[in-house]
Amino acid sequence: MWVGSPENDWNDPSNWSPVGIPIATDDVYIRDESNQTTVISVGPVVFGSLIVGNSPPNANETLLLAGGFSSDGAVYVTGAAMLFLGTLEDQPNSIYNADIIMVDTPSTLLIRDANVTVVDDIYNLGLIILDGNGNASSIDNTNSIKCETNSYYQMNTIFNRSNSTLLLKPGSSLYFTGVEQDDTTRFMDGSRLYGMAESGMKFENQSLYTDQAIIELNSSAIATENAYILIGDQTKFNMTGAYTTIFPPSSDSVFASSRSNATITDAIVGFDHTLFFLNNSRFNIFGSSDFYLKDSFILTMGDGGFLSLFESAKMNVHQSTIFIQNYLDLGDLANLNLYGSQIVIAENQDYYSFTASGNSSMTLSHQSSLTVNGIFFLTDYATIQSSVSDFSIKEHMYLQNDSIVQINLANFTVDGLLTIVDRAQLLFSSSIVYINGSAGAYDQSKLLLNTSILYVPGNFTLTSTFLSMNSIMIVNQYFQSAGLYYALETNLLVSGEFHSYGYAFFENTTLISNGTAKFDTAFYGKNANITVQSGDLVFLENSNFTCTNCTISVLAGVFEYQQGTRLELFNTTLTNNGTVSSLGDVSLSPGSSITNTGLFTILSNIIANATTNNETLPAEINNYGSINSQSNVTIDVLINNSGNFSIESNSSIYVQEFTQTDGGNLQLVGGGSITSYLNLNIQGGSVYGNGAINTSLDLNNNGQLGIKNITSELEIHGNLTQSGNSTTVIRINTIDDFTKYKINQTIEVAGTLLVYMNKNLLGNDVNVTIISYNQTSSSGGDFGKIKVLTYDPENNDDEEEVECQVQPTKGERNYSLLLQDCENSTAQSNRNKVIVGAVVGSIVGASVLVASYIAYKKYLAKKLFAKKLDRIQAEMNKL
User: Strand ranges (DSSP E) for 701-791?
Assistant: First the structure.
């Protein structure tokens, strides 16, 4: 025990009781409750254990050991100060309870120019100031505190001198404890902290500050409890290790934080194989910090689970996973880069789950992924780039104020809402995009789809710019573009509804509609392919549709262009197998064609447009189905009709050129009319109905005027010319209801006259004028064959050919028929007689008709004479 004066030499034996300098086995006590005791040693000292001072406020002892000391036992410093001017080699179970306040006052522990080795455990419940001189404290020069294997050092310490070092060897632990966050541990001005395998640090109820420091942790753990961590200006913070599970073994690096805030400012921070538990804690990265994370895992939990990057801070994440309970916030030029990593952000009920603003940026590459289960918000020039990575938004993705999202070689999914406004851009390249919820792009925003596939099972609305290139779009529900849509080499498949209410440009693009596809305002196509398989393709009122080198096909649905619409086709083919309703004007250039095998309703004009480079192929309509015109229209192109062409009641149609072949029918209904400057060329099929033909009619080859089932009444304001292989058909319902043809100019007939007569007229004399005309042609001509058949008016079925006395009369102004003694072939054969001189079944040539008439008069005379003889014989029998 010390018994010397207040200021005496350790090495003076008389200062000790019992007398003698302490040796390695002695327990040393320095206690003085009344005096300020200072014990000095210039050389090294040894002792077994050391107790300095009593409990405050009566602890006034100071121990100066210039040469350091060696102890085999515990060192207890209670309410006292120790000044070391040498090497301190601590022994197991040393306890420092110095309760130190500041430099140069009682209760201060100063270590100057010393190497302190902590062999086992040092407990310091106060403040250790290393090289304190009143205002600054550090470990001087090359000196260090070393925590040996399995040692324990609990302290509240300041390190702030260049080259000072704190080393934690394997198994050692540092506990930085305080009463509240105002208690601090600092690493400053080039000081170093090294943690080796299985070592650890805990910051509890205090703050950790670093400034121009170096912190290297290898398989070490950092835990915080109610702490604030500021990794500051130009600090290098590296943490490496190897964890394998969420509850890692002791060799892992662990950063655990509870109810704490960690802030990194203008620092270089690296974590490798590190596990972060952030419970109700916040991780902030500011300034020009460079944060590196590799093979690590960050788990934030609780309401305080935040990760924030601001002020040009950069965070690089390699092969790591980050799970954020609350939200991720990027701002002020911050940059977050993922390499083979994933971030999962839980839904935040009260705020955004992901925010990026202020020219901040985020990149995903090497099969990374970002999953946001809440609201994703980008604004103020923030950018996100994702390459070979997955991008998933479960709730609402909101882009505004010139923000940009670029997705390349990735899967992109929005299950909730996607909103793009205020010049924001969403760009996809070589990606697969799913919009499972509803999406909208407005206010000068832009959407780009390049070499990608876009699935829209939900709704998609655009009032801005949309560009798709080398891509596929599949719309299952509703897609609406009311802005500018440019499609280049795109396949657009619509099974739901597709509406383009703005400007649409399709180049080398295919549109296939199984649902409803509607276009308004303007559509411009080049080398486009539009196919309506089963749905409707509609161009709304007063819109413009222009297509060059295009193919338009209606397979089974409806293609409708409404009133006021202008359809301009340049070297384009329109093929209809379904239903086409033409309410607007159509302009066909040479090389363009409309081919109809379905139902085509024309209610407006189809005109020729000479603006084309293809002058060799005429503009034409090829009809193999049904075309009907229901208004006064002009068709200023060639019509090739092999189907049904109907001009409805009181409708008038002008055609440039009309050619009909086998299988075709031209029907005029209820006073409809057809007009042309060229003759109607009927090479096959029929012309019939009730109406006017305002041109000449040429019946060639197998052409036919009239049909058996309808009593036609046609007025031809031109010539009627009939070739030898053609047919004129007359239907006689009654002697007052029969087919009539009025030719306002000349006729030249040949071929066959085919008469269908109501079977109820058999046995009656029928005299009808079937053709009236202005004059006959100079060559005259007559029917080469007249054939009479009957039909059943009940079912309109044909009966059989009949034998009649047929007397045709071709006068100056009309052509009439007299049919007498018409009997069917069966009745005639039953009588087994043939009228001499009668023409049976058919009358061939005009001379034969005259001869038949003479023979018929002789026959009548004989018949009348025979009847008279029979009557005389009957009178004689009465006598």
Answer: 704-705, 713-716, 720-722, 727-732, 740-748, 752-758, 766-776, 785-791
